[in-house]
C-alpha cells in the first residue's frame, strides 16, 4: 500500500513539475501574448528564442514582419526567418515560403521554388500544402497543367477537413475538370465546405454555391446529396472523434510512461542513496579502522624506538665504562712504571754514590775514570727504561765475563779511548724495572780490581761503541747494565796499565 501511495505521489509531483515547466516556458508566454494581441511583448519574447534556433519562434517572427504587426511590413526580413525555420523542417514555415515565392513577396516570383516548398510540406501530410499543390496543377504554375492531379491533391486536403479544398472539389465536379460532372457530388462537397468554413463570409459564399447547384438537381438527387453529405460529415466526425480518442489515449499512455519513468528514476535514486549511505558507512568504518591501525602502528614504532634507544644507551654506557676502566688501568700502569723507574734510578744512584764514597785502596780512579763512571751511571739510568727483566742465568754469565781479570802487557799499546758521551734515553713507558740482584752483581763486577800481568798480551780493546737498538716489539730485552759494567771494567784496567811505576819496582804477579 505504501509503495502504491509513493508511486501516486511521485506521479502527481511529476505532473505538477511538467505543468509548472509549461507555465514557466517563455515560448508559451510568447504565444499567449501573441494570441492576446500584444505583438510587441510577443516579439520581445520570440526574439531570444529564435536566435537560439527555436523554429516556432523563428516562424512567429516571420509572421510579425510579413504582416507588419509591430514594425513596418518587411517581406525580406520575414523571408529570412521563414527560411531558418523551414530548413529545420517546420511545415508552416515551408508553406509560407511557397506562398512568398508564388506571390513574389520579398523575392522575385518563382513558381518552381514555390512548388518545391509545397511538396516538402505535403510530404508531411499538411492540408494547406496539398491545397496549394492542387491549385498549382490546376493553373499550371511551375508544373504542367493537370486537373486530375489537382483533384487528387484537393481530395487529400478535403479528407483532412480543409474547407477550401472541399469547395475546390465541388467546383471540379460542377465543371467536370479532372472528373466526370456530378451535381450530387458537387452539392455534397459544397455542403461540407459550408460546414467547415472558418468565417461567416466564406460560409455564405459556400452556401450560395451549394444552393445554386441544388436548383439544378431534382428532389431525389438533392435528397441523395444531403444523405451523402451527412454520411460524409458523420464519417468525418467519427474520424475526428477517433483521432481525438487516439490522441487522449496517447496522452494517457505518455502520462503513464512518464509516471513509470519517474517511479523507476525515484527507485533508482533511492537505491543509489541507500548504496551511497552504505558506501559512506563502509568508508567511515574503514577510516576508523585505518586510524586505529595507524595509532597502533605508531605506538609499536614508538616502543621499538624506545627499546632501541635504551639498547643504544646501555651500549654507550658499557663502552664508556670499558673506556674508563682502560683509562684507569693505563693510568695505574703508567704510575706503577713511573714508581718502579724512580725506585730503580734511586737505587742505582744510591749504590753509585756509595761506591764513590768508598774508593778501593788498591786502585785509584783517574779523572777520566770518574767521568766514565758518571757517564756509565747516566747511561744505565737511561737504558733501564727500555730494558726488560733479564734471566738470572744470563746475569750470572755476564757477571763471570765481567769479573775475569783483564791482563795488559806493559809493552802493549793502550786501548782506544772510551766514548763517554751520554746515550739517548729510550722509551720509558715500555721499560720494566731491573732486578736488584742483577744490579748488585754488576756493581761487584765493576768494583773488583783488574790484575795486570806483565807477560800476558793485552786483551783486544773493548768495543764500547753504541750498539744499534733492536726492534722492541719483537726483540728480546738486552741487559744494558752489563755492557756498562764491562765498559767500566776496561778503563780501570787501562788506567792501571798506564800508571807510572817506582824505579826498581817489579810488578807483582797475581794469580788469575
Describe this protein's structure.
The protein is mostly helical and 512 residues long. The chain has two domains: 2-273, Serine Threonine Protein Phosphatase 5, Tetratricopeptide repeat (Alpha Horseshoe); 365-498, no CATH class. Helices cover 71% and strands 0% of the residues. The protein has 17 helices and no strands. α11 packs antiparallel against α12 (200-215), α11 (183-196) crosses α13 (219-357) and α15 packs parallel to α16 (436-447). The chain starts with a helix and ends in a 14-residue tail after the last helix.
Q: Would you spell out the secondary-structure blueprint of this structure?
A:
Layout lengths: L1 H22 L2 H10 L3 H13 L3 H13 L7 H12 L4 H13 L7 H12 L4 H13 L7 H13 L3 H13 L7 H14 L3 H16 L3 H139 L9 H17 L8 H12 L32 H12 L32 H19 L14
Helix pairs in contact: 1-13, 2-3, 3-4, 4-5, 5-6, 6-7, 7-8, 8-9, 9-10, 10-11, 11-12, 11-13, 13-14, 13-16, 14-17, 15-16, 15-17, 16-17
